[in-house]
Design goal:
Distance between the termini: 67 Å
Shape: globular
Strand order of the largest sheet: 17-14-16-15-19-20-18
Mean pLDDT: 93
Number of helices: 45
Low-confidence stretches: none
Radius of gyration: 30 Å
Largest sheet: 7 strands, antiparallel
Length: 959
């Protein structure tokens, strides 16, 4: 391989990786499988693809194309050279609204294209549930569809032309051909000519066999699309490339139709208490011509009820349905959509059609339903047990009139074998995602998977259906193609593959000559897990190994420019910096892929190192992967074996150092500003570009001794965090003033650090000691019915989120349940009509940036409600994700560039374009420091902003 690697390394503008860690990261997708590739090329442009294929052809090494790797069949993994087009090749080359097309590179993301098209009322018709990261190249390779295929069909119905780089390096554009142009290309003495000749012969000689073998349903994506070429000239050869899963070549340009986006949509949520009854109503609903008709079953619903991702999102759900059918109606006007919904409602009223029908007409409510539906796969995979929702017969499609009987049989087949099963998907087109719960480490369940595939495949064939209606074949289903299409058509598939790729170098083992479906499983009977005695209990996940194993590779963490997860990936768009990469690397290690010494080695440490511990994955990942907690646990074990760095101990014990520094605050601030001090900090790994936090002239605990509580109806406990104690006591003072005016008597417990810095540095034994001290301090007050309010989100939410898992005591859980952020306390006052403060009224725009832990664990609605309650204030939340500081992360020299790149992604630009009169509010100390450093603007804590607008600021003396 040395020659191959050297040529690739020196020939490309993009990136080349052949190290063990990178190969492990690229060895998985969202399927059951893991295959270590030979190497990875992150292509910068078409020339990189061409050179990679040409060099690989020279060394007869296979090539596998890869987009977002959200596929569930193993279609983009293999033992050759992986070509990743998702990072750089994401340009929308042209959009022509008059002719109705968009020309894209393969790495363009579905939502990226739709955002561009939406400005003029257009969209790409196929809309996968993974649209925030699925690439157009991957959608083309898979022949993707989505929830609205009733209207739009599949990708094969939208691809106009594609440019493909073949295994020998030839570049060919495939599109519509007349009979004359087709025969001209047959005459070419090139690989392209060979392809056209082979296609002509296949179609001419076997048209009847093709017509008989291919099912007559809309959602058939198995095999090669030979049925698209039997309709007579003109023939569009691009339709043959669609769904070919990269087995013919690598696509570098795609021209797709664009469609009119529906202007107005409404939903009717139909609740059924009987599974079969719901399925039998599909035909009746379709007579009302819905825009889409989706299905969600009880298993998904029940798991959704306990999923952090769906917290507060299921208020539309009534009772405990066995099945939901979601009917969507659209029209060009709001009235038109409502009229369709009304007509449908009137048609089913007065009957026992369903036990409840919820009409949802506002976008916010509708988005909650779609969130549950789109998260169906991840939610099913979040079940904490050895039996997992396994994708193998995952997206079977059958004729609509056979759907109810087929799914009833399917469910009974597995329930008779004592296996739970979950359903969701596209009822309106007969394509439903079915996930039986199996444990593939058991021989019996492995055998059941194979036997059920054989039996159900035969039934699907007899019904005129398809093994895949959406996700393609890959490793999982290709082995059944000869059974499904018959030996004659399967032989045509092989002839077609030979014409395109005579050396079998393009994604081999997919569609034809498949790999064994029981080989290369991530987990099998021989898996020997490494067990660790953990500091966290991981009780929510069922243990450490379950926690690590929660990642199913769905790639939600690789979404771009939206949400919180994953900051490091969003900054660099590098797969190696994603939550998926970290979780899968840990999975591989704990499942015996490496030795214990390697598990505790620098390579794995470095993969986890760029996790900012934002906690976004805990709520945004459908499977609730909590990488922040796993990183802390891993760091503890790593450092116990390899030792703790001085800098880690320094940051972890910031409260102790702050106590010493605060004795001489003016001197400390002066010394910290000197060049020699910065040089020393630089030597121990602290970024010299950063300004260290200033110390206040007086501690908050000193101010407490000088203040007097007035008699009040209510009592509340104010948790004094390290920043408030030493750096910004004015925030605590302002809070005291506000709470006093709201009628609270404030209890000030003794200052103690919450231990968050220790947790972030993996010093978990010390953190547990600190946590126990805090619990002992707060418990008596909580037992008296008092709430504990915190000012720094990361500190109060550490008590609420980390302590129960660290201490595993009822006392810790009791204290955790009493914790509130200051904005939650103020919202409570607003909702109870007690927010009767007197304010100066000045019209003012406010931009609000939320701390990561608040976004992930509590949400931002409470802060926005408080700001909206202030007279004259118009608040807007910045869609900013993480600020990039993440406590000490942004202070660490090796992380400084990434920290700033994260800020530059969304936060800094939004602040810079705001008026100088616009106020910036952010409750996180790290966030305010980052905003000051990166955007040169002063950000205030919420209570600072409120206090400045109060008429009565008595008692809020600044120190």
């Amino acid at each position: 391989m040395k020659g191959l690697f050297e040529e690739l390394r020196h020939s490309l503008k993009g990136e080349f990786y052949s190290d063990d860690i990178s190969k492990r990261i690229y060895s998985i997708d969202a399927s059951l499988y893991q295959i270590i590739p030979t190497a990875i090329v992150v292509a910068r442009d078409s020339e990189d693809i061409s050179k990679t294929i040409a060099i690989s052809y020279k060394y007869k090494t296979p090539v596998i194309g890869r987009g977002a790797a959200t596929g569930i069949t193993g279609g983009c993994i293999g033992s050759g050279i992986i070509i990743d087009t998702s990072k750089y090749m994401q340009k929308i080359i042209d959009i022509n609204y008059e002719e109705g097309y968009a020309l894209c590179q393969p790495g363009v993301v579905q939502d990226q294209l739709n955002k561009e098209l939406a400005a003029k009322g257009y969209c790409l018709g196929p809309d996968t549930s993974t649209g925030n990261r699925a690439t157009i190249g991957g959608m083309t390779a898979n022949n993707s569809a989505g929830a609205h295929s009733l209207r739009y069909g599949k990708m094969v119905d939208h691809v106009i032309s594609v440019r493909v780089i073949l295994s020998n390096g030839d570049v060919v554009t495939f599109g519509e051909e007349t009979e004359e142009s087709f025969k001209e290309k047959m005459a070419l003495d090139t690989r392209e000519g060979d392809i056209f000749k082979a296609v002509y012969k296949i179609i001419s000689d076997n048209q009847n066999d093709i017509e008989v073998a291919f099912p007559k349903i809309q959602r058939r994506v198995s095999g090669y699309n030979l049925d698209e070429l039997t309709k007579g000239f003109p023939i569009n050869m691009a339709k043959l490339i669609v769904g070919s899963e990269g087995t013919f070549g690598i696509i570098d340009f795609i021209k797709v139709k664009i469609s009119r986006k529906p202007s107005n949509t409404v939903l009717s949520i139909l609740h059924f208490d009987n599974f079969e009854d719901a399925l039998n109503k599909v035909d009746t609903i379709l007579k009302h011509k819905p825009f889409s008709l989706e299905l969600i079953d009880k298993t998904v619903i029940d798991l959704g009820k306990v999923s952090p991702m769906m917290e507060g999102q299921l208020d539309w759900l009534k009772g405990s349905p066995e099945m939901l059918l979601v009917a969507e109606f659209d029209a060009s006007t709001p009235g038109g959509a409502l009229n369709k919904q009304k007509a449908f409602t009137e048609a089913i009223e007065g009957s026992d059609f369903c036990y409840h029908n919820s009409p949802l007409n506002d976008k916010k409510s509708q988005s909650k339903v779609w969130k549950l539906r789109k998260a169906g796969l991840g939610i099913l995979m979040s079940k904490r047990s050895n039996e997992r929702a396994i994708p193998f017969l995952e997206d079977v499609a059958v004729p609509l009139d056979k759907l109810a009987g087929f799914l009833t049989f399917f469910r009974k087949y597995f329930t008779d074998k004592s296996k739970e099963i979950g359903f969701y998907g596209h009822a309106g087109v007969g394509c439903v995602h079915v996930r039986p719960m199996l444990d593939l480490s058991k021989e019996a369940d492995r055998n059941l998977m194979i036997e059920s595939m054989k039996e159900i495949a035969q039934m699907v064939k007899d019904l005129g259906g398809s093994l895949s209606g959406e996700h393609g074949d890959g490793i999982t289903r290709s082995w059944l193609h000869e059974k499904m299409f018959g030996p004659k058509v399967y032989k045509l598939f092989k002839d077609l593959k030979t014409a395109f790729d005579p050396d079998n170098l393009m994604n081999p083992g997919k569609i034809i000559d498949s790999l064994d479906p029981l080989e290369n499983l991530k987990v099998d009977m021989n898996t020997q897990q490494i067990n660790l005695n953990t500091q966290y209990t991981f009780s929510d996940e069922g243990g450490w190994n379950f926690a690590v194993d929660m990642c199913n590779g769905n790639g939600e963490c690789t979404k771009k420019d939206t949400g919180l997860m994953c900051p490091s990936y969003q900054a660099y768009e590098d797969e190696r910096h994603s939550t998926r990469a970290r979780a899968q690397s840990l999975q591989y290690a704990l499942n015996g892929g490496i030795s214990y010494n390697d598990l505790m080695g620098k390579k794995l440490h470095d993969i986890l190192d760029l996790c900012l511990e934002c906690k976004g994955c805990k709520t945004e990942c459908p499977s609730s992967v909590d990488m922040a907690k796993m990183k802390s646990e891993y760091l503890y074990h790593y450092q116990e074996k390899n030792g703790y760095k001085f800098r880690s101990r320094l940051f972890a014990n910031v409260s102790k150092h702050s106590e010493k520094a605060s004795k001489f605050p003016a001197l400390t601030n002066f010394v910290n500003s000197l060049a020699p001090t910065r040089w020393i900090f630089n030597m121990i790994g602290i970024a010299p570009q950063r300004e260290l936090p200033h110390f206040a002239s007086k501690k908050f605990s000193s101010w407490i001794k000088t203040t007097t509580n007035l008699p009040a109806e209510r009592e509340i406990v104010l948790f004094n965090d390290t920043f408030n104690e030493y750096n910004t006591p004015k925030i605590g003072i302002y809070t005291s003033n506000i709470l006093n005016q709201l009628g609270y008597k404030i209890i000030y417990p003794e200052y103690k650090c919450c231990g968050r810095p220790m947790i972030s540095k993996g010093m978990l034994k010390e953190a547990k000691v600190q946590a126990q001290k805090i619990v002992s301090l707060l418990l008596p007050h909580v037992k008296n019915g008092l709430k504990v309010v915190g000012l720094e989100p990361s500190c109060i939410l550490t008590i609420a989120d980390d302590y129960p898992e660290l201490l595993n005591t009822e006392e810790a859980k009791t204290v955790a349940s009493a914790c509130m952020t200051i904005d939650e306390v103020l919202v409570e006052a607003i909702e109870e009509n007690r927010f009767d403060l007197q304010f100066h009224v000045n019209k003012m725009d406010v931009l609000f940036h939320a701390h990561c832990h608040q976004k992930a664990l509590r949400g931002t609605e409470s802060t926005l409600k408080v700001l909206s309650a202030l007279p004259g204030v118009t608040p807007k939340e910045i869609d900013s994700g993480c600020c990039g500081m993440a406590g000490s992360f942004g202070y660490e020299k090796e992380h400084y560039d990434m920290s700033m790149a994260i800020g530059e992604k969304r936060l800094f630009p939004e602040i810079r374009k705001a008026s100088v009169l616009t106020e910036i509010v952010s409750n996180g100390t790290s966030c305010r420091c980052q905003i000051s450093h990166g955007a040169s603007r002063n950000a205030q804590h919420l209570v600072e902003f409120i206090n400045a607008r109060l008429v009565n600021t008595a008692g809020s003396t600044i120190i």
